[in-house]
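[step 3/7] fold_predict: job queued, chain A
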Amino acid sequence: MKNQSQAYLLALLAVLFWSTIASAFKLTLRFLSFTELLLWASLTSLGVFSIYLGFKGNLRSVFRHSRKQIFMAAVAGILNPFSYYLILLKAYELLPAQEAGTLNYFWPVILVLLSIPLLHQKIKFSSIIGVVVSFSGIVMISTHGNPASLHFSDPLGVALALTCPFIWAIYWIINMKNPMPDTEKLFIGFLTAFPLLFVVFILNGGTNHLPEWKGLAGSIYVGLFEMGITFIVWLSALKKSQTTAHISNLIFLSPFLSLIYIHFLVGEEILLSTIAGLALIIAGIFLHHYGGRLYHFFRLRA
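[step 4/7] structure written:
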């Protein structure tokens, strides 16, 4: 049933949770390797979706979908959480949280570019301008406000952080083509990814001992509020909202709130170049979505 007030409340709750994750990543990586963090977080998320689907009475029906749909969900799981978070967490090891987290918000721009060859969509002039504006924000963040030098703070870390939006955008497109319910797709994805993550954990020198409680607590927090419960809350908000557009723009509060958490919890000094670069990225995304409307509005006023 549509209820816009509840939709806004749930969406804001999800945004608040997601805003804490960059800090949670960075703090937890003080106690665990990135592979260990992801292993425990993924196990937590798998438990969340198992309990949720079991409570809803849909756990058995997951495997009654067509083989093609299950295969697509499994492939999506190899992209996310397996590949996406392995690369993202390694980027967090190499970069400040404000840099790794902010660069990840470039994914809507990548989605625009990939939609041209993969979804055969035409790109508007306003979208081209938006891509350029967002890319200038990437350069601003990566060079710490000195784009003319093209001297990146950590070239490998920046490369990894910018790989993640590509993976997420491809994952998004694959999911769009799969009619399975979202929570069931996520369950299949984590079920596929967890054994692969366990192998990577072992190859990375993993042990059979439980990690220090602070690291384990951080991993469980990430599993609950980055990959698990928060997705369920966000999906509930989408179902209750009259339209997706009513709440989708709220997600752009997350990176700015995240910078506040990073400053006070992680102790990083937030650079003006990070804020300026983030503003450029989001401005580019808005140009893609609303550039045409703005053009027609000012044209009518002229």
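[step 5/7] annotate
The radius of gyration is 20 Å.
The chain has a mean pLDDT of 87.
exit 0
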